[in-house]
C-alpha cells in the first residue's frame, strides 16, 4: 500500500571488534572456523533430551561452536563448544571465521545473516520462523531441521551439508549483495518518511481510498 514503507534490515550494520575472550576463541578455530547458535531471546533453555542431541552433534564437528544457552549444561557437551549467556550476534556473524548460523528463524536474525552473507541451519519453533526460513531455504541459503526430526545425526548432517556445499555460501552472498544494494539506508528512509508525514500534516494523500468505504 502507498502508506507502507519497507525498512527491513535497519538494525544491520558492519561488525565491530569482539571482546578479547571471544576473539581468542574465534582465532583458535584455525581453518575450520566457527559455528554460531542462538534460538533468540524467547528460548532460554530446551528439554534436556533435545540439548543432549544438539551437544552430541556439535561434539562431532571439527569447527568450534559458540552457543547462546542458559539452561543446564548438557552432559554430552564437547570441548569445542562454548556456552554463553549473551552474544554480540551481529559482530559474530560479521566475523570472517564464522561459517554457519544455527538459528530459530526470527526476523532480526535472518536479516543479520543476510546482511553478512552467512548461511543458516534453521530450527523453527513458532510464529513466523518457519516461513522466514522456508523463504531462505527456497533461495538456497538455508537448510531447515524441524524439532520433530532433530537429533544428533540430522543436525550434524545439515551442518556438514551447509558448510561443505559451497552453493549455500554463494547463495547467501548473492542475497547479501541484493539486500545491501539500495539507494537509501533503511534507517535513513524511515527518518525521511517520518518527517515527510509531519511536513504534510499526516500525508492523507497516501492513505488508501478503502478507508472511505462505508461500513
TrEMBL record:
Membrane topology summary: Single-pass membrane protein
SUPFAM superfamilies: UDP-Glycosyltransferase/glycogen phosphorylase
Entry's EC annotation: 2.4.1.17
PROSITE patterns named in the record: UDPGT
Keyword Chaperone: no
The keyword Iron-sulfur is annotated on this UniProt entry: no
Gene3D superfamilies: Glycogen Phosphorylase B (3.40.50.2000)
Keywords associated with the record: Glycosyltransferase, Transferase
UniProt enzyme class: transferase
Swiss-Prot/TrEMBL catalytic activity: glucuronate acceptor + UDP-alpha-D-glucuronate = acceptor beta-D-glucuronoside + UDP + H(+)
Lineage: superkingdom: Eukaryota
Pfam families listed in its UniProt record: UDPGT
Main location (coarse class): membrane
Cellular location(s): Membrane
Family per similarity comment: Belongs to the UDP-glycosyltransferase family.
Protein name (record): UDP-glucuronosyltransferase
Lineage: Eukaryota, Metazoa, Chordata, Craniata, Vertebrata
